[in-house]
Structures are given as structure tokens and as C-alpha cells.
What we know:
The complex is a heterodimer of chains A (about 1050) and B (about 140). Helices cover about 50% and strands about 25% of the residues of chain A. With about 1050 residues, chain A is α+β, with helices and mostly antiparallel strands. Chain A has a 6-stranded antiparallel sheet with strand order 8-7-6-11-10-9. In chain A, strands 19-18-17-22-21-20 form a 6-stranded antiparallel sheet. The longest helix of chain A has about 50 residues, at about 620-670. By secondary structure, chain B is α/β, with parallel strands linked by helices. The longest helix of chain B has 23 residues, at about 115-140. Chain B is globular, with a radius of gyration of 15 Å. Classes of the chains: A alpha+beta (about 1050), B alpha/beta (about 140).
Amino acid sequence: MTETSNPAADALQTKPDFLAAILNTAGALILVIDRQGRIVRFNKSCQRTTGYSFEEVKGRPFWDLLIPPEQVAVVKKVFQNLKAGQFPNEHENYWLTKNGERRLIAWSNTALFDEDGTVDYVVATGLDITERKQAEEQLRQAHDELEDRVAERTADLRRHVAFEDLITTISTNFINLTLEEIDQGINQALRKVGQFMGVDRSYVFLFSDESQKGGRKMNNTHEWCAEGIAPQRQRMQDIPVDTLPWSNQILMQGEVLHISKVTDLPPEASSERQEFQAQGTQSLIAVPMVYQGQTMGLVGFDAVRGEKTWSEDSIKLLKMLGAIFVNALERKRADAALRESRRMLSTLISNLPGMAYRCRVDPNWTMEFVSEGSLELTGYPPEALIDNHAITYGELIHPADRRRVHEAVRKALDDESSFQVTYRLNTPAGEKWVWEQGQRVHTQDDDSTAVEGFITDITERVSARRNLEQRVKERTRELSTLLEISHNVASTLELEPLLGLILDQLGAVLAYDAASMMILDQDRLDVLAYRGPIPQAEALQLSFPVGQAGANRTVIQRQEPVIIDDVRGEEPLARALQETAGEELYTTYGYLRCWMGVPLIVKDQVVGMLTLDHCDPGYYSSQHADLAMTFANQVAVAIENARLYQAEQERLEESERRRKVAEGLRDIVSILNSNCSLEEVLDAIVVQALQLLHADGGAIYQLDAEQEMIDIVTTHSMPSGFAQIRSFPIAPTAVNRSIFQRRPFAVPDFSAMEPSTDPAQLPSSLQDLTTMVSQHFRASLTVPVVVEEQLYGAISLYYNQPRQFSGEEVELSETFAHQAALAIANARLRDQVEEVAVAAERSRLARDLHDAVTQTLFSASLIADVLPKIWEVNPEEGWQRLEELRELTRGALAEMRTLLLELRPAALADAELKELLQQLAESVTGRARVPVSLEVTGDCHPDEEVKVALYRIAQEALNNVAKHAGASQAQVCLHCGPDWIDLCITDDGRGFDVSTIPPDHLGVGIMRERAEAIGAELTIESEPGRGTEVMVSWQAS
Amino acid sequence: MVQEQDVLEGEGMQILLADDQAKVRSALRLILDQEPGIEVVGEAVDLTGVLDWIQVTRFDLMLLDWELPGLENDQDLEEIYDQCPWVEIIALSGRPEARQAALDAGTAAFVSKGDPPNRLLAAIREVSDVKAAHAAREKSAPTH
Lengths: 1037, 144
């Protein structure tokens, strides 16, 4: 019947790789169905996955149970038209489990054909990929989200930079515009900004004076409309501001009017809603045009064809646009005023911010007439200047500008034209920029040359322009730095180098003498990156408790930047800082005067802080804080990214570490079960312990209580000369005290440890040893090794660096001590088996027991071997198996104890009968997994002969229970009187027919002999199926 | 029944475990479950159990505890071979000295319980390869 030329085998052979891969994982589903779709074969994995047993599904079409209802029709149809060409194939589909759950299975199908090529059977091999799919999906989503966020951020930034560019261009243009070109410039700017923002209408309104008749009015002076949008300018002239009271009040207060949805306007804004709706506006924004603290008008933008909102950044830029407009308009207005005042010179002279003059053309510019404005402009009243009474005008001119002024005037006199010149004046109030216009005048006596003209203060305009230029430059630098950081954040996942990089880049736009990034770790702030005068290595060790540092705490609590103008000053936060830093504020932190702390916020949680130190008191302003906050937001994104990355790395490391622990235990168990010598086994244990606990050196010590010495049994990676010491006296050190109490002893840092004994009082060999250890190592962990409940010695692990020991590490080191104890017990056993010439009976028992130990160790070694693999696939099962492994090794120890008793008869003589029976019961419980209980009444102290005989009988009877009875439980009873003892051993096993049992079978002969030797009576009662009872009654003769 | 077995032939090694100790069987099953191409089809605790399994299931290989209760002499082993001549047996024992006796009795391999686990897996793989070679030879002369 052997089917060798098998089509299935052939078909399966065609995909060996796939098959191997599938079967590699423990959970491959294998389903065989006949051509009617009936299930023929349904392996364990199928049963596990679906919850159906084979019996439940056998012979039933698989779509009846396993296919979701909506797919049944399709699947059935496929089956009605099965063709050879369809195989082999692969697909994914859902299965319904018995409890209605859906599992996604990846199938690989092949078919078996009869001679004429009809499909006989379909063999489907599947993998449950539900979790994998879900995990993939989640991972993909997380990745997409991150990508989107980066893209969004970058797009936002780009758009913002473009907008800034636009505003900068407009601003530059305006500086160069002549007065006549200003209106056109405004119209153009409205169009450009309107188009950039994609709005439908942009406009400027100017408010008139309140003093005007009929109250304050508003006029639409400039307007741009997108194509197809109705202009409003004609209509919006001389509109009393009270017509739109709600919105105008906001603007008058210098605030921005931002309406995302006109329909959502509050009831008090009903006039506005009516007006805006009449214009077809859905959303709008209007920024006030403020000049010298007063709202002069507004710049507004309407969205008609859709709704729109404006970001904070855009609003800031729009405000800037308003400022550009209002400055230009004011310039124009001032100019108009100037022209008017030319007509009314006298008014002009007394009213204009400037100085009218008449002077002679000499090096002193000797004044003949000076208007009242001179006091404000030059700081000197007219009489001080006239005829150089107190000072000459020439002296007031900035020395660097004197020659230029002179040349400009000279040239104009030669050309008979007027001159204009801009230059600096040194006045008592400081340097001022002035603009002068003048021309030659002909007086009555034609000989002298005089110049008349007007000088006005343009400092504000010049510095405004300079500020603007400076600001534009700064913003450009900030933005390009931000872009660079944004790029770094997206591409660098390691936190520390990135944070350092960001501090460097921050330095390009925001001056500091020292800067640091700190991460909040529970209640401490740890410095992760630092730039400044403190040496890097030192700075990176710094860590501040949040509770003690008032300034830091304030930043974290407020979740906003905090500036301390002068840390040596009197304000409360400066005081707090002085308290925290103490003297160091003048030494280590001597460079620090102005301090700024900025929170790093991720999802509304403060995760750290950025601090900036400057040596000038009062250096940092709120603009600096805004800028630093923008950087801090980028840093927060970096931290979030890095944390995700770190968590993933840690997860990988953790699983790698567990795998290593499992592998280490496997190696030890296999060495234990081999025929290596004790020294080799202990050496291997130390090597494994070093690797798995990352120690730099290790040793096993043995206690020699008789000699009051400690012997060094084995060492690894210890300083040379260490092993030569061989042994040293027991001294009352802390570690010894702990080990004698059988407790582990950890020293996280030698240098922080107070010696419990004066080192000078220690014996010299111990001094040498201590010196060697403390010169090479900084920390240690010592765990006791206990063999057969006797303290054998200890394992010590040594570390080059100070460290804390986790509970898990201590537990793991104890496992190693446990393994060492096992090895030592095993070695003693072997020695004794070899040394002691045992009697035949004892040797049989010993062999049985040794067999039991071998079985247990064999099972343990199999589990240990496969543990690392299981761990990779399923850590939870790994832990479970590890527990099983521990139980097995514990069991092996108990068995060994009983075995030792067999090999050392003296121990039998010394022990109490009750204890011997207790141990026997435990050993059988562990060996055969049959719970054995013990009941003792009365005082039992028989002489040795009786005791040994009773022990042997109980042992033989329990041996039968373990090997033959198939019992679920057993009991040992010992009742003692003053001169009698009853012992009985009962079980609930299968029993036997007492009459047919040969006298020497089941050790019955041995038991009888033992009983007879002490004059006791032995009875055995048993019936098939009703358990067995062995009773011994002894009476003192 | 027969068809089902045919279908699955070539899928991998089907193994019966025979050992009286539950912890040993459980550990063996655990390690074999991790091996691709191996399926543990059943467990027997004594010779009677082994013979019962032979009646109801087909398997390629038996891991046999050489101290299995009921297994008294070579005749017991012959009885197994009589009933299923295709089965290969790997003897397992806690006593390394039993090796020669086991091999003499016709088992394909002997593994001491003191050996490291990979010795057992190597023996299974070796037996499996030899079987596959046999099967390939027989294939050229189909009996169908």
C-alpha cells in the first residue's frame, strides 16, 4: 500500500522553499479537503486557530463552518469548477473561528489529481497572519502619520517663508517709492498679498478725525478685487464708524479682527453680519494700521467664494503690511502738510517739527535767524545759536558729515539751485538724523551770501528703515535656520547629537554665552546638550531636581518662557536662582546675568527645557522668547521622534537580552548533564554569569568552616595574583555577614562604602585581596551558594564602573548560584557513587533514584535547549517554560538529597524517623507526581535498627506506588506508643490480587525480611481496582 | 484513512513518543514542535500503549525509552517491527551502557539521556535522511 509515486508529494516538492518556511513556524495550518469541499484532514494548528476539534469538522464542507457568510457563495462556485490549471495557487482569506472571531489566513494550495487529471484533493497550507497584518497596518499608519507631519510642517514653513519674502519685497519697494507712487504701491501690494493668500478682495480704509462733522467716518481708499468679485469702494465712502460699532471698536483698540465664519458672528455684531453678508463675504480679516499708538485705518481681506482662517504667523505679517502702509500714508500726509505750510510760512515755522533758518555761508554756518523749533531739534534755543552766541551750528554737525554738507551747499550756490542734504547732528539728547533743504537768498547788500532753509528731524524714519532692514535680515536668518533644523529633526534620530546641533544653530540667530537642553526625567532635569564655558563632560553630568530649582519649576508649571533680567537682582525668581546656585552663581556660573528658560512641550506635556544664559543683564526680550519658543517646538518634535526610536531600540535589546539569558541557562544545564569535572562546570557557570550580568570579573568562594578559612575555588578575569591567594581567613566584613545570613550583598560603588571593619585589623592576605579588588573594580554583587541546606560559599561578580543592581539582576545571579549548587551536589553524588561500595539492595535503590535524576535533568536540558527559540516567537510562553525549568531543577535537587541518603548510611542513623519519612514522601511526590501525605502521632524514637527497617519498608512500598500503582494519591501514617509502632502506607491505585502475587515480586520479599528482622508483623491488603495498603506493627519485646 | 495518509506522505516526519515519564514526554514534544518537518502524532507510556498506537495511526519514527515499562526483551521489539516494518526506532536511555544492546536489537540509533539535546535532533535527522533516500529509490519502481 505504500504510495510512493505520489502526486501530492510531487506537487508539494515543487515549492520546497515555501513549505519549509511555513512549517518553520510552529503554527502552520494544514487542511486537506476532497473535491466536494469536505474536510479530510484538519491539523492541530487548524484546531487551535478555529477552536473546532477534528471530530466537529470531519467530513463537512469547509464553507459550512469556516468561511464568512458573505463569501460562501463565491467559494462554493470556485469548488464546482475546480480545474487542474488552478493549482498550485496562493491567496489570503478570512476564517471564522468557533467563537465567531475572524482570522486572516495566507493560504498556499495545491491539489492531487487522479489519472485523468481531475482534482481529487486540495491540500491547503496556511499561516494565521491576522496579528501580523494588523501590526503591519499600524506600523504603516504610524509611518504615514510621521511623513504627513513632516511634509505638513515643511509646507507650512515654505509658505510662511514665501509670505515673508513677499512682505519684505513690498517693504523694500515702499522705502524707494516717491510720494506720488505711494497710492499705486498700496494698490499693487493689495493685489499681490490678496493673490498670495487666495482671497477675493483686499482693501484699505482710513479713519477720519473725531472732530469732523458728524463724528468719525471711514473711507475705503484702496481696493483690489479678484475677477468676478464686486468692488465695494464706491459704496464705502464717508461711512460713520458707528455703522459697524462692534468691529470698529476692536480695531480702534489696536486689535485684529479675525472672522472665520461671518454666519457665526455674535448677536452684538448684527450690523456687521448684515453688511458683510451684503458684500457676499464669508470670512474676513482686518488688521489695524497703527501710527504712534493710534489706529489710523485698517487693511482688510475678504473671502467671498469660500471660508478661510488665518494663522498667527500670517497675522503677524499682515500687521507688518499695515505698518508699511500707514508709514507710507503718513509720509504722504506729512508731505501734503509741508506743501501747505510753504504757503503759510509763519504757521509752518512755529508748528513744524523742525527749524527754519537763515545763515551765512561760513565754516560755522553762523545763524542770522532761527525758528522756535531749534530747541527741539538741536537742544539749543534760537538765541544760543544766533551769531554763535553759545555754540556754532557747524559744531553740531557730525564731524564725519561736515565736509559733505559743505560741498552740497557750495554746489547748489554755484548752480543757483536748491539743495537737499541728510546728515547727523550731535545734540545734547544724542545723535539725530536731519534732512535739510535750502537755497541761496539775495539780501539788500548783495555782497554777502546767505542761505535760507528748513531742517527737520528724520531720525525716526532713518532708524525705522534701518530697523526694518535689520529685522528683514534677522528673520531671513531665523527662517533658514528653522528650515535647517526641521530638516535635521526629520533625518536624525539620535537625540544628544541632534540637540547639540540645534544649540549651535540657535546660536546663529539668538546670542547666548551658554545654552543647555535638559530633559525632564520624573522630577529631575538632566542636561543632554550644552554649549558654554563649563567643560562638556562636566556639563553633561549635571542634573537638577525640579523641586529645588524655582526658576525651572516656574517654566515647567507655566508652560511658557520665563526671563530673569538679572540673576543677581532682587526679583523673586532671581532670588530663587541665587538660593539654588549659591556661591556657584559667582564662580562656575559667573558668566551668567540674564537667564531665559523655555519649555519643550510635546502633546501639552513639558518634556524638558531649553535655557539660555547671557552675560549682559536685561539682554533677553519677549521677542527673543518668541523666537526661542519656535526653536523649542522643533526640539520637542525631535525628542518625540527620538523617544519613539529609542523605545523601539530598547524593545529589541530587551528581547535580545532575554534570548541570551535563555541561551546561557541552556548551556549551563547541558554542561551540568555532561561528564565535565566540577571545576570545569563551576568555571563555565562563572563565565556565563559574567556574560549575562555584564560583569568584568568573577569568582566562586568556598567556605571551610573547620579551618575558619575561605577558599577561592575558581576565578575569571580577575587581577593577576588574585588566584594565587587561594584562601584567606573569615573576617567579620559586611559581605561575609550577609552571606552567612544567606542573603545577596550588592555594593553599587566601592568608594561610597564605609568599611565596616578597620582595614588595618584585617589579616594580611585579606588586605591584599581587598586592595586588589578595590584597585580594579568599583562595584560588586555577591550571592550565597547553598548546597543541601548547608552554606557552601558564594559567587561574586565584579564591575569596573559603579552601577545599581536591579531586582531582576539579583534574581538572575541567584539562579546562577542555584545552578552552581546543583553542579556541586551532582559532583558529590558522582564521587560517592564511585567511592562507596554499596550493598546490592542499596545500589538498586540508588540506581532507581539516579535514573530519576537523569530523567529530570534530561527533560530540563531539552527545555533549556529550546527556550531561546520559544522566546523569540512567544516571550510569554518563554517565561512559563523557564518556570517549568526551575521546577525541574528544584525537583532534581530533592531527588539528589534522597540519593545521598542512600549513599551515606551514617546520615540515615542520625536522622529522626519522622524526618526520613517526610523526605521520602517529598521525593516520591516530586518524582512520580503523586501527592504523598504524612501523618504522625505520638513520640517516635525507636532504636536505629527498628528505624532503618521501617524506613526501608516505607521506601519499598512507596517505590511500588510510584512505579506500578498508577495512584492519584498516597498516604503514610506513623503511630507511636511507648513500646509499639504502627506504620501504614496506602494508595488509591490499581491494586492487585494478593493471592496470585509471587512472594518475591514487587519487593514483597524484601519488606517481609525487614519486618521479620525486627520482630514486626507485615500485612498487605489489596484488590484489583481498590488500591493497596501495607501495614507494619512493631511491639517492643 | 489510507488516502489521508497518502496525501500527507512527504509532508514530514511523523513521530510517536514512548516514555513512562510525563515530564520527559512533554519536554520531547516541546523540542520537536520547534523542528520543521516533524509532527508528534502520539505518546505512549508503556509497551501496550505503543502497540495500541500502531493499530490506529501510521508513523515513521518512534522515540523509545529503553526502560519503557513492559519492554522486557528483544521479542517485544520484533513484535513492533512485525506490525509496522517501515517504522524506525531511536532508543533513548539514561544508561549509556545500554547502547550496544539497543543497536544489536535493531534500533536505528541510540541516544543517551545524558547527551546534549542536539545529539537527539541529529539522530532524528539522520534517520529521516536515510528513509527519504529509501523512498526515492522505491519511487522509481512504483507499486501502485
